[in-house]
Amino acid sequence: MSKTPRKTKKAKAGPAKLWGGRFAAETDRRVEAFTESVSFDRRLGACDVRGSIAHAEMLGARGIIPKGESRKIVSGLKVILREIEAGKFRFDPALEDVHMNIEAALTRRIGEAGGRLHTARSRNDQVATSVRLWLREEIDLIQERLLDLRRALAGKAEGTVEFVMPGYTHLQRAQPVSFAHHLLAYCQMFRRDGERLSDVRKRVNVLPLGAGALAGTGHAIDRRMVAGKLGFDSIAENSMDAVSDR
After folding, report:
1. Residue scoring higher pLDDT (102 or 245)
2. How far is residue 35's CA from residue 96's CA, in Å, rounded to a whole number?
3. Do residues 67 and 11 make contact, with C-beta atoms less than 8 angstroms apart?
4. Which of the two residues, 19 and 93, has the higher pLDDT score?
5. Which of 92, 93, 116, 118 is nearest to 105 (CA)?
6. I want to staple 93 with a disulfide (CB 3.0 to 4.6 A). Which of 10, 36, 83, 157 is the partner?
7. CA 15, CA 122: separation in Å to the nearest integer?
Protein backbone atom coordinates (compact mmCIF):
# COMPACT_ATOMS: atom_id res chain seq x y z
CA MET A 1 0.00 0.00 0.00
CA SER A 2 1.54 3.26 -1.07
CA LYS A 3 1.90 6.06 1.43
CA THR A 4 0.75 9.56 0.70
CA PRO A 5 3.79 11.78 0.32
CA ARG A 6 4.24 14.15 3.23
CA LYS A 7 3.61 17.72 2.19
CA THR A 8 6.33 20.23 2.85
CA LYS A 9 5.32 23.63 4.14
CA LYS A 10 6.09 26.46 1.81
CA ALA A 11 8.33 29.14 3.16
CA LYS A 12 6.51 31.97 4.87
CA ALA A 13 7.42 35.55 4.20
CA GLY A 14 9.82 36.59 6.93
CA PRO A 15 13.40 37.50 7.64
CA ALA A 16 15.84 36.24 5.04
CA LYS A 17 18.35 33.71 6.32
CA LEU A 18 22.03 34.06 5.52
CA TRP A 19 22.08 30.57 4.00
CA GLY A 20 18.43 30.27 2.95
CA GLY A 21 18.63 31.21 -0.73
CA ARG A 22 18.49 27.60 -1.99
CA PHE A 23 15.50 26.46 0.05
CA ALA A 24 11.87 26.87 -0.98
CA ALA A 25 10.38 25.19 2.10
CA GLU A 26 10.01 26.64 5.57
CA THR A 27 12.75 25.65 8.01
CA ASP A 28 11.68 23.19 10.68
CA ARG A 29 11.39 24.91 14.05
CA ARG A 30 13.65 22.30 15.63
CA VAL A 31 16.39 23.21 13.16
CA GLU A 32 15.95 26.90 13.93
CA ALA A 33 16.15 26.20 17.66
CA PHE A 34 19.33 24.16 17.14
CA THR A 35 21.11 26.64 14.88
CA GLU A 36 20.21 29.96 16.51
CA SER A 37 22.72 31.59 18.84
CA VAL A 38 21.09 34.95 19.47
CA SER A 39 19.66 33.70 22.76
CA PHE A 40 23.16 33.97 24.21
CA ASP A 41 25.32 35.98 21.78
CA ARG A 42 22.99 38.97 22.07
CA ARG A 43 25.33 40.07 24.87
CA LEU A 44 27.73 41.07 22.08
CA GLY A 45 25.16 43.48 20.62
CA ALA A 46 26.52 46.82 21.83
CA CYS A 47 30.11 45.82 21.05
CA ASP A 48 29.14 44.62 17.58
CA VAL A 49 27.48 47.97 16.82
CA ARG A 50 30.46 49.97 18.09
CA GLY A 51 32.78 47.92 15.90
CA SER A 52 30.52 48.52 12.90
CA ILE A 53 30.37 52.27 13.55
CA ALA A 54 34.17 52.50 13.52
CA HIS A 55 34.31 50.35 10.37
CA ALA A 56 31.71 52.49 8.57
CA GLU A 57 33.51 55.70 9.50
CA MET A 58 36.75 54.29 8.13
CA LEU A 59 35.07 53.19 4.88
CA GLY A 60 33.79 56.71 4.34
CA ALA A 61 37.07 58.38 5.28
CA ARG A 62 39.00 56.16 2.85
CA GLY A 63 36.49 56.71 0.03
CA ILE A 64 35.67 53.00 -0.16
CA ILE A 65 31.99 53.92 0.13
CA PRO A 66 30.46 57.39 -0.37
CA LYS A 67 30.73 59.60 2.72
CA GLY A 68 27.01 60.26 2.59
CA GLU A 69 26.28 56.54 2.88
CA SER A 70 28.86 56.22 5.65
CA ARG A 71 27.11 58.93 7.66
CA LYS A 72 23.73 57.30 7.01
CA ILE A 73 25.02 53.94 8.24
CA VAL A 74 26.58 55.46 11.37
CA SER A 75 23.38 57.36 12.17
CA GLY A 76 21.29 54.19 11.85
CA LEU A 77 23.72 52.18 13.96
CA LYS A 78 23.67 54.78 16.73
CA VAL A 79 19.87 54.45 16.96
CA ILE A 80 20.22 50.66 17.19
CA LEU A 81 22.93 51.04 19.85
CA ARG A 82 20.64 53.19 22.00
CA GLU A 83 17.87 50.58 21.67
CA ILE A 84 20.22 47.77 22.69
CA GLU A 85 21.56 49.69 25.68
CA ALA A 86 18.00 50.52 26.76
CA GLY A 87 16.93 46.86 26.40
CA LYS A 88 14.38 47.77 23.71
CA PHE A 89 15.96 46.09 20.69
CA ARG A 90 14.00 43.04 19.52
CA PHE A 91 16.21 40.06 18.73
CA ASP A 92 14.64 37.54 16.33
CA PRO A 93 15.81 33.90 16.69
CA ALA A 94 14.85 33.29 13.05
CA LEU A 95 17.81 35.51 12.10
CA GLU A 96 20.07 33.14 14.04
CA ASP A 97 22.68 35.44 15.58
CA VAL A 98 23.24 38.92 16.94
CA HIS A 99 25.15 40.06 13.84
CA MET A 100 22.37 39.20 11.39
CA ASN A 101 19.79 40.79 13.69
CA ILE A 102 21.67 44.09 13.72
CA GLU A 103 22.37 43.99 9.98
CA ALA A 104 18.69 43.33 9.21
CA ALA A 105 17.55 46.11 11.54
CA LEU A 106 19.96 48.55 9.91
CA THR A 107 18.79 47.69 6.38
CA ARG A 108 15.15 48.10 7.43
CA ARG A 109 15.96 51.55 8.79
CA ILE A 110 18.16 53.02 6.08
CA GLY A 111 17.55 50.83 3.05
CA GLU A 112 20.12 49.69 0.51
CA ALA A 113 22.95 51.69 2.09
CA GLY A 114 22.88 49.26 5.02
CA GLY A 115 24.23 46.53 2.76
CA ARG A 116 27.43 48.50 2.20
CA LEU A 117 28.44 48.18 5.86
CA HIS A 118 29.92 44.75 5.17
CA THR A 119 32.29 46.12 2.49
CA ALA A 120 35.90 45.06 3.18
CA ARG A 121 34.77 42.92 6.09
CA SER A 122 34.02 39.23 6.67
CA ARG A 123 31.79 37.72 9.28
CA ASN A 124 34.96 36.12 10.65
CA ASP A 125 36.87 39.29 11.50
CA GLN A 126 33.65 41.04 12.50
CA VAL A 127 32.87 38.39 15.13
CA ALA A 128 36.48 38.26 16.33
CA THR A 129 36.39 42.03 16.86
CA SER A 130 33.08 41.96 18.73
CA VAL A 131 34.28 39.19 21.02
CA ARG A 132 37.49 41.06 21.86
CA LEU A 133 35.59 44.27 22.59
CA TRP A 134 33.23 42.35 24.87
CA LEU A 135 36.07 40.52 26.63
CA ARG A 136 37.86 43.80 27.25
CA GLU A 137 34.75 45.28 28.88
CA GLU A 138 34.23 42.19 31.03
CA ILE A 139 37.87 42.14 32.13
CA ASP A 140 37.64 45.80 33.17
CA LEU A 141 34.44 45.10 35.11
CA ILE A 142 35.99 42.13 36.93
CA GLN A 143 39.06 44.23 37.73
CA GLU A 144 36.87 46.91 39.32
CA ARG A 145 35.09 44.31 41.43
CA LEU A 146 38.35 42.67 42.48
CA LEU A 147 39.68 46.06 43.58
CA ASP A 148 36.51 46.74 45.58
CA LEU A 149 36.82 43.32 47.22
CA ARG A 150 40.48 43.88 48.14
CA ARG A 151 39.65 47.27 49.63
CA ALA A 152 36.85 45.74 51.68
CA LEU A 153 39.14 42.99 52.99
CA ALA A 154 41.90 45.47 53.82
CA GLY A 155 39.39 47.70 55.60
CA LYS A 156 38.13 44.77 57.64
CA ALA A 157 41.70 43.76 58.46
CA GLU A 158 42.45 47.17 59.99
CA GLY A 159 39.97 46.52 62.77
CA THR A 160 40.85 42.90 63.43
CA VAL A 161 44.61 42.99 64.03
CA GLU A 162 44.11 41.94 67.67
CA PHE A 163 41.69 39.12 66.83
CA VAL A 164 43.39 35.73 67.10
CA MET A 165 42.32 32.63 65.22
CA PRO A 166 43.85 29.23 64.53
CA GLY A 167 45.99 28.91 61.42
CA TYR A 168 45.67 25.58 59.63
CA THR A 169 48.09 23.33 57.78
CA HIS A 170 47.25 19.86 56.45
CA LEU A 171 43.68 20.43 57.68
CA GLN A 172 44.88 20.66 61.27
CA ARG A 173 45.25 23.59 63.63
CA ALA A 174 48.89 24.64 63.60
CA GLN A 175 49.63 28.14 64.94
CA PRO A 176 47.68 31.13 66.21
CA VAL A 177 47.41 33.95 63.65
CA SER A 178 45.77 37.33 63.49
CA PHE A 179 42.42 37.39 61.68
CA ALA A 180 43.75 40.45 59.82
CA HIS A 181 46.70 38.38 58.60
CA HIS A 182 44.25 35.76 57.34
CA LEU A 183 42.22 38.38 55.44
CA LEU A 184 45.28 40.01 53.92
CA ALA A 185 46.37 36.64 52.53
CA TYR A 186 43.27 36.78 50.32
CA CYS A 187 44.13 40.35 49.33
CA GLN A 188 47.40 39.04 47.91
CA MET A 189 45.67 36.19 46.09
CA PHE A 190 43.13 38.51 44.48
CA ARG A 191 45.91 40.94 43.54
CA ARG A 192 47.62 38.16 41.59
CA ASP A 193 44.31 37.38 39.89
CA GLY A 194 44.14 41.03 38.86
CA GLU A 195 47.68 40.87 37.47
CA ARG A 196 46.75 37.81 35.42
CA LEU A 197 43.70 39.61 34.04
CA SER A 198 45.86 42.61 33.15
CA ASP A 199 48.10 40.30 31.14
CA VAL A 200 45.07 38.75 29.42
CA ARG A 201 43.76 42.22 28.57
CA LYS A 202 47.00 43.06 26.76
CA ARG A 203 46.58 39.98 24.58
CA VAL A 204 42.88 40.65 24.00
CA ASN A 205 43.36 44.32 23.09
CA VAL A 206 44.61 43.62 19.56
CA LEU A 207 42.37 44.53 16.59
CA PRO A 208 41.59 41.59 14.24
CA LEU A 209 39.35 43.62 11.90
CA GLY A 210 40.86 43.72 8.42
CA ALA A 211 41.80 40.05 8.46
CA GLY A 212 38.74 39.23 6.37
CA ALA A 213 37.71 35.59 6.20
CA LEU A 214 41.36 34.58 6.66
CA ALA A 215 43.50 36.32 4.02
CA GLY A 216 42.77 40.03 4.38
CA THR A 217 40.98 42.28 1.89
CA GLY A 218 41.83 43.93 -1.41
CA HIS A 219 40.37 47.26 -0.28
CA ALA A 220 42.72 50.01 0.92
CA ILE A 221 41.43 50.05 4.49
CA ASP A 222 42.98 51.89 7.43
CA ARG A 223 43.23 49.41 10.29
CA ARG A 224 45.07 51.79 12.60
CA MET A 225 42.26 54.32 12.26
CA VAL A 226 39.74 51.68 13.37
CA ALA A 227 42.03 50.54 16.19
CA GLY A 228 42.27 54.12 17.46
CA LYS A 229 38.50 54.63 17.35
CA LEU A 230 37.88 51.41 19.29
CA GLY A 231 40.72 51.80 21.79
CA PHE A 232 42.84 48.86 20.65
CA ASP A 233 46.54 49.08 21.51
CA SER A 234 47.68 47.38 18.31
CA ILE A 235 46.55 45.52 15.19
CA ALA A 236 46.90 41.81 14.46
CA GLU A 237 50.00 41.05 12.40
CA ASN A 238 48.79 37.82 10.79
CA SER A 239 45.32 37.54 9.27
CA MET A 240 44.97 33.79 9.80
CA ASP A 241 45.99 34.10 13.43
CA ALA A 242 43.56 37.00 13.89
CA VAL A 243 40.44 34.98 13.04
CA SER A 244 41.46 31.47 14.11
CA ASP A 245 40.95 31.82 17.88
CA ARG A 246 37.36 33.03 18.07
Report:
1. 102
2. 7
3. no
4. 93
5. 92
6. 36
7. 21
Q: What is the pLDDT of residues 108-128, one digit of tens each?
A: 999 999 999 999 999 999 999
pLDDT of residue 36: 87
pLDDT at 87 over 70: yes
All structural domains of the chain, each given as residue ranges with its CATH number in brackets, are 25-119 (1.10.275.10), 124-243 (1.20.200.10)
Question: With contact defined as beta carbons under 8 Å apart, do 59 and 120 qualify?
Answer: yes
Looking only at the bridges linking them, the beta strands covering 172-178 and 164-169 are: antiparallel
| Orientation of helix 67-85 relative to helix 45-61, angle to 10° | 170
Task: Give backbone dihedrals phi and psi of 44, rounded to 5 degrees, phi first.
Answer: -85, -5
- Look at residues 157, 123, 121 and name the one whose alpha carbon lies nearest to residue 18: 123
- State the Cα–Cα distance between residues 223 and 221, nearest whole angstrom: 6
16: Cβ–Cβ under 8 A, 6 or more apart, which residues? Answer: 104
CA 95 to chain centre: 18
Residue type, 150: R
pLDDT at 96: 87
pLDDT at 178: 97
Give the pairing of strands 206-207 and 234-235: parallel
Q: Most distant CA pair in the chain: distance in Å? A: 91
Strand partners, 117: none
pLDDT at 33: 78
Instruction: Yes or no: say if 144 and 184 are a contact pair by the CB < 8 Å rule.
Output: no
Beta strands in the chain (DSSP E): 164-169, 172-178, 206-207, 234-235
Tell me phi and psi for residue 216, to 5 degrees: 80, -160
* Per-residue pLDDT, 136: 98
